[in-house]
Amino acid sequence: MNGAFAITWLLAAASADPRVGIFVGSNGAPAGLTPLQHAEADAARLRRVFVELGGLPPENAHLLEAPTADQILQVIKERGSGAQLLVFYYSGHADQRALLLEGSELSFAELDRALAEAGAQVSLHLVDACRSGALTRRKGARLGEPFHFEAAPKGEGKVVITSSAEWEDSHESDRLGGSFFTLHLATGLRGAADGDRDGRVTLAEAYGYVYGRTVESTLASSGGSQHPTFAYDLSGQGDLVLTWPSGPGGVLTFGEGEYLVLEAATQRVAAEINTPGSRITLPPGEYRILKRTRTEVWSGRARIGAGASWLADQFLTEREAHARLVRKGGPKDPELAQGLRAQIGWRGPIDASLGAAPIFRLGYELVLPWLSLSPYLSATWPQTFETPRLVYRTQELGLGVLASRALDFEWLTVRGGLLVEGLRLAQVEAEDREPSRTTWGAAFGAQLALESPPFGDFGAAVLGEVAFYLFRRSNAELEPIEASSLVSEPNLRLLLALGYNW
User: Fold this and answer.
1) How many angstroms separate the CA atoms of 397 and 413, rounded?
2) Which of the residues 253, 284, 329, 410 could staple to 369 if both were Cys, CB 3.0 to 4.6 A apart?
3) Residue-wise pLDDT tens digits, 63-110
4) Residue 85 burial by CB count (10 A; 0-12/13-18/19+): exposed, middle or buried?
5) 388 or 106: which carries more pLDDT confidence?
6) What's residue 487's pLDDT?
7) Domains of the chain
8) Mean pLDDT score, 165-179
9) Quick one: pLDDT at residue 133?
10) For 14, phi and psi rounded to 5 degrees?
11) Distance separating alpha carbons of residues 263 and 315, to the nearest angstrom
12) How far apart are CA 18 and CA 78, in angstroms?
C-alpha cells in the first residue's frame, strides 16, 4: 500500500499488444437493496478513458449495462480469449461472495474461473462493488471475509484493485455523479496520476493516485473513509502502462484550488482535481470548469481542441460567492456558507423614557439552501432621560436570531426575514440618588435588506426593520415606583451592515 511496490510484465512486442476491455455497470438491485444511480455511467466513463488514452480499440471495448450473469460470462469467453491485456471492470452491488445483479448472481469463484480461462497474458480486474444509499450511497461487500481472485495459471500475470478494504463500505456521490473511486481513477488515468510527467500513467502511479484521493474524498462521508486495496502476481520487466495522456486530445493544466471539470452538454463530471500542477488530457469538446476557493467559486466555459494545451484558470471568467451557490441548491454546489456581520444604525423611540438611539449589532450567519439563520448581539448607545427631579441614563441590550430567505439578482440580493429578540433594558440615575432599574422583555419583528454582490470576502447591505416591543414599564413620577404596565409598540430601525464571508 506504500506505493513502492514493483509492477512488472513482459510483452513479446509493442506492436503485438492487443488490449481487450470488458466494462460492466449494473444499477439494478436484488430484492432488499436500493437500486444505484451511477454504476452504469461509471462503467461508460472508464471505458471511454481506456479507448481514448489506453490503446484500447473501440471494437475491443465492450460495455455491458445491466447484464445477467450469463451475459457477462459469455462476453468474457468470446471476447477476452487470448488478449495480452484484459481489463475487467465492474460497478454494482456485491456481497462477500458474489456480484449481485438484478435477477441473477455471479459468484466470485465462477467469475475468477472465467477470467482465468480467457488466457490473457496480463489480466487487470477493477472492482467497484456497491450497496445503496441517498446522496452518498454506501457501496461494497458486507463485513466479513474479503472477496478475491486466486492465482492465475503459470505464465500469466494478474492485478486486482478494489474500491475499499473488506471491512469498509465504498461510496458514490450524487454531487459528482458517480463513485469516488471510479471518478478519481478516471481522472488519474487522464494524466493527474502522471507524477514523473513522462506522458505515461503506470499501474503503480494510478493506484497511488486513486488511493490518496479516495481516502481524502471520503474522510467526511457519513459512512466513513474507504481505502482501495490491491493484489498482484506479475512477472517480467518494465512498468505496466495503462494510459498515454500525451495522446490525442487537449491538455488542461491546473493551479491552486479545487477544480471540477464538467462536460458542457451533459453536465457529467469529467475530472476532479486538487493538486497544483496536475495535467489531464480531455477529448475535444466543450467543458465547464469550476474552481472553488475558500469563499467563492470561479467558473467558465472552455472549448478544448486536439493537440493544444491550456491553463484551466484562463477560462475562469465568472465569480460567484458560496452563499449564492448554496441558495441555488444545485447538486454540485456547496451545501452551506458562513459569515460574520457588523451593523450600525439607528433605533427609533420606544416610549418617552426610551428615545431614539444609535444601535450596534454583531452577528453570525449560517447560509443553508432554503434558509439563513443569524444569531446576533445588539446594544444601544446610552441615552439620557430627565424627570422633574432626576436624570437617568438608559440602555438596551439584546440577544436575537433572524431567519431569512434571500433572492439573488445579478447586482443585488433582496432578503426578507423574521426576527425575535430577548431584551434587557437598564436605567441608572446619573447621580446615583435612586437605585438602578432593570426590566426584561422581548421584541418581534420583520426585516427587509438590500445586499450588494460580494467584493472578495466582503459584502455590504442596507437593512430596514419593524419591531414590536413587549416589556414592563415603570414610571418614576408615580408612587409607589413599582406601579407598571405592559407595553407593545412598533419601532423602526435602519442599519448599515458589513459582512465577511467564507
Assistant:
1) 29
2) 329
3) 999 999 999 999 999 998 888 899 999 999 887 778 889 889 998 889
4) buried
5) 106
6) 62
7) 14-244 (3.40.50.1460), 248-316 (2.60.40.10), 337-501 (2.40.160.20)
8) 72
9) 26
10) -65, -35
11) 14
12) 15
- Beta strand 413-429 with 318-321: parallel, antiparallel or unpaired? unpaired
Q: Distance between CA 45 and CA 117 in Å, rounded?
A: 27
**From the CB of residue 470, how many other CB atoms can be counted at a distance below 10 Å?**
13
Q: Which three cell numbers stand for residue 214?
A: 479516495
Of these ranges, 8-12, 74-78, 197-201, the one predicted with the greatest mean pLDDT is 74-78
Phi, psi of 15 (to 5 degrees): -70, -20
What local confidence, expressed as pLDDT, does residue 1 receive? Answer: 36
Q: What angle do CA 10, 11, 15 make, to 5 degrees?
A: 160
In three-state secondary structure terms, 314 is: helix
Q: Which residues are paired to 342 by β-bridges?
A: 362, 498
Give the separation between CA 459 and CA 452, rounded to whole angstroms. 6
Are 108 and 90 in contact by the 8 Å Cβ rule? The answer is no
pLDDT mean over 314-318: 93
Lowest mean pLDDT among 25-29, 109-113, 224-228, 302-306: 224-228
Strands 372-380 and 383-386: unpaired
**DSSP structure class, residue 192:** I
CA 353 to CA 355: how far, in whole Å?
6
What is the per-residue DSSP string for 133-146? Answer: ESSEEEESPPSSSP
Tell me how far apart the alpha carbons of residues 222 and 172 are, in angstroms, rounded to a whole number.
12
3-state DSSP call for residue 176?
coil
Cell triple for 52? 481514448
Alpha helices in 15-100 (DSSP H): 39-53, 69-79
